[in-house]
Design a protein that fits this description.
11 strands
Length: about 120
Amino acid sequence: QVQLVESGGGLVQAGGSLRLSCAASGSIFSINAMGWYRQALGKQRELVAAITSGGSTSYADSVKGRFTISRDNAKNTVYLQMNSLKPEDTAVYYCTAGVVTTTPVGTFGPNDYWGQGTQVTVSS
């Protein structure tokens, strides 16, 4: 199995910065795309940023120019650097990864795995 563990959330004032990390562990053969979603109270979960195994990135319009997604393939870790934070960025942030796993009979997947979520709160 695969576990994704997020860290780095917290409370910050508007205009401040936070860096989220998400480390994948387990029976990993390879990881395809990785990404960050967020869900604000009473709203649907939305894609914030994504990065392919080759390093190509994409962002939601609302975070372009403020957030940067990156990954360290050797550490199976994805990061989200969040600058110029706004109160509307307040949400639970989830990481996700498309993982090919190893099994006794070969590889399996890719399948999508999710972290448990980390709260980001931006005060005005």
